Amino acid sequence: MKKIAVIMGSDSDLPIARKALDTLAAYEVPFEVHVYSAHRTPAEAAAFAASARENGFGAIIAIAGMAAHLAGALAAGTTLPVIGIPAKSSNLEGLDALLSTVQMPSGIPVATVAIDGGVNAALLAIEMLAVNDEVLAGKLDAARAAARAKVLEKDAAVAAEFTL
Ligand code: RP5
């Protein structure tokens, strides 16, 4: 199975990264984690992106806050899918990072998830791998079925308590 890379701009992004890592682990998807910054370590970030495909990765998750260029900078160096997580790390509540991550120019896409959206970033990466992995696709289906059952259980409980 291909690996997923989880790259964060700073170790202060770790709480968001953990959500993605826990999700990948729950699906038994292999991953590698690094701290590379588009601004503080641009050479290391570029080198990682340039060699990611030959190093066995299937997708890259990039987490960054403030003037968040990490996802775009990695995407510039690879044709692997890059998923950007804007981090809420400044007094602009993550809106700065959201716009920096999502507003990519044509030709260099970044699939941007919600601010601090570690779980969905991991699920999106898993869905990418599941395109040609039936076992993984089955796990995703099972998780959706379990989530549906939970909501229907809550619906029944709420309806029973409040319906006149
Ligand atoms: C970004 O700046 C990082 O991704 C982090 O979210 C933010 C703040 O970094 P630190 O100053 O905490 O290292 O590059």
What is the element layout, followed by pairings?
Elements (H helix, E strand, L loop, with lengths): L2 E6 L5 H13 L4 E5 L6 H10 L5 E9 L4 H7 L5 E6 L7 H8 L8 E2 L5 H13 L3 H29 L2
Parallel strand pairs: 1-2, 1-3, 3-4, 4-5
The site of 5-O-phosphono-beta-D-ribofuranose (RP5) has 10 residues, from β3.
Can you tell me about this structure?
The mean pLDDT is 97. Strand 3 (57-65), helix 3 and strand 4 form a beta-alpha-beta unit. The protein contains 6 helices and 5 strands. The longest helix has 29 residues, at 134-162. The chain has a 5-stranded parallel β-sheet, sandwiched between helices. Helix 1 packs parallel to helix 5 (118-130), helix 2 crosses helix 3 (70-76) and helix 5 packs across helix 6. 49% of the residues lie in helices and 17% in strands. It is α/β, with parallel strands linked by helices and 164 residues long. Bound molecules: 5-O-phosphono-beta-D-ribofuranose. 5-O-phosphono-beta-D-ribofuranose binds next to strand 3. Residues 9-10, 12-13, 37, 64-66, 87, 89 line the site of 5-O-phosphono-beta-D-ribofuranose.
Basic shape: globular
* Radius of gyration, taken over Cα atoms and rounded to an integer in Å: 18 Å
Give the low-pLDDT segments: none
From N to C, what is the helix and strand string?
Answer: EHEHEHEHEHH
- How large a portion of the residues is in β-strands, by DSSP E? 15-25%
Number of strands: 5
| Cofactors, ions, other ligands | 5-O-phosphono-beta-D-ribofuranose
Distance N to C terminus: 53 Å
Helix residue percentage = 40-55%
Q: Sheet bearing the most strands, described?
A: 5 strands, parallel
The structural class is alpha/beta
Mean residue pLDDT:
97
List the strand order in the largest sheet: 2-1-3-4-5
What is the helix tally?
6
